[in-house]
Amino acid sequence: MEQILVVDDEAAIGELIGVYLQNEGYRVFVCENAREALECIDKEKIDLVLLDVMLPDQSGFDVCRKIRENHNYPVIMLTARDQEIDKITGLTLGADDYITKPFRPLELIARVKAQLRRFIHYNPGQEDRDVAEVSGLRIDCRDHTCTLHGKKLSLTPTEFSILWVLCSNKGEVVESDRLFHEVWGDKYYSSNNNTIMVHIRHLREKMKDSAEHPKYIRTVWGVGYKIEG
Description:
By secondary structure, this protein is α/β, with parallel strands linked by helices. 43% of the residues lie in helices and 21% in strands. The termini are far apart.
């Protein structure tokens, strides 16, 4: 049973989200501030965090940053402010997705399930399909690891999924709408391109790849991205 941590300073909202998730078969921990959340993370085996941006003792952004110091499970930010800067900040700090309040329960559940699907290890026994290698880059879906010239890359689940889609189609252009659909499981709109760009930038930084003269991830302007074979 997957374990989900819900962090929201409004107790009623946190408890309501908890009920939705419990009805789907998840075990849920609900915290109202950053201190409780970080204590829970230290004590429990968490598989996904739903994290409100506005908390009484620290910002959700600070908590996200601390989570990423030691964990790579999915983090979905909850925000009452539909502002692009909040979304970009969360993604920059390592969040995998964001949901704007008020949200529909079915949308919340769908986002949670999509993130968990990407994070769960692939079934063993499919070695050829579960490993991709490109010019010193090796990505293995069986144990959710990625190395570059033998050195481990610390990737978020979303970054891992993006890189896997590109590596699985090495040498081919993956259109932005296809990439968004395969990674996020949602319909693509032009506004979603900023989300993709932020994650691509993070991948390039971690791989020490140049956007101007890339060795790995190339931008095909107006179309999508490709990784050279």
